[in-house]
């Protein structure tokens, strides 16, 4: 069975059978699968994931949210790279990009509202448009000169919302954009690798289920913390394109970020992700060099979504990274960093001209 087929079967199984995972599955995972995986050589075992730090900053938004941010790299750099993380993650998800770029470029990393060390806000303010306005205020506060915006997943949607709300920034202050594993819309139509009828059923049931569970978020969170071994296995299998060879240290790192995001926050943002539609805003990005990066086995924001963005941006460069999935910036950081360096070179040429 191919890896793609296995993942499709795994997704279906995870959705249909999650409620019956039980104590036995957790015990099996802990005794057997987890033990075997962790005994394998892990080249990332000594990588200081989540330990890189910069100069701390707080941006208080117009609606009172306190956004945690960090400024890294040389202050005299002519260009600032602003990194916008994805759904359920935090600014540490950019570890490899920060590590490789911080010696040469000024970096601004920030936790999106209700994520990481930023303050929690309610469901009414958990929208993509509000995230776009948050990014606008981060740029005003922490980015005095020209910049390049980099967004993964929901972070890419944040950049699109900024383009929709503040198109005047692009070409003037914003000199380039990288969109990684993201979508301009129609996520509610994504099949998740499931057969058509089952996919429709899942999309019909999921919003209500997420909403109900969100109202019992504290109880769900207790269960999530208790079942972290099972979560490790599920994330390793579904979140990475090459699940057999992905570093257990990296999987642990991602799982801890997701687990630290309260389920109430996950539920609050879920409707915004499903209703997101910013295809009409993409023409704003055509004014600046743009890079689009996607894993070739991404089941959450499939390759077709990145290709749709590329079709709307004829001058953009599309990179499909082999044997990788939605967390491509952590799974294949070298390929992502190469695409970012290429983008920064193009931006530098444009600035000089």
Describe it.
The chain is an alpha/beta fold. It has a single domain, classed as Rossmann fold (3-Layer(aba) Sandwich), CATH 3.40.50.1820. The protein is built from 14 helices and 8 strands. Helix 12 links the parallel strand 7 and strand 8.
Number of H- or I-type helical stretches: 14
Termini, distance in Å? Answer: 52 Å
What shape does the CA trace take? Answer: globular
How large, in whole angstroms, is the Cα Rg? Answer: 20 Å
Protein name: Lipase
Pfam family, one: Abhydrolase_1
GO molecular function: catalytic activity
Task: Break the fold down into its secondary structure elements and pairings.
Layout: H1 3-17, H2 22-39, E1 55-60, E2 66-72, E3 80-84, H3 95-101, E4 106-110, H4 128-142, E5 147-152, H5 154-165, E6 174-180, H6 196-214, H7 217-226, H8 228-239, H9 248-260, H10 263-275, H11 282-285, E7 290-295, H12 303-312, E8 317-321, H13 328-331, H14 333-352
Parallel strand pairs: 3-4, 3-5, 5-6, 6-7, 7-8
Antiparallel strand pairs: 1-2, 2-4
Helix pairs in contact: 2-8, 3-14, 4-5, 6-10, 8-9
Pfam family, one: Abhydrolase_1
Organism: Planobispora takensis
InterPro entries: AB_hydrolase_1 (IPR000073), AB_hydrolase_fold (IPR029058), Carboxylesterase_BioH (IPR050228)
What is the gist of this entry?
The protein has 353 residues and is α/β, with parallel strands linked by helices.
Features of this protein?
single chain; 353 residues; alpha/beta; Rossmann fold; eight-stranded mixed sheet; AB_hydrolase_fold; Carboxylesterase_BioH; catalytic activity; Lipase; AB_hydrolase_1
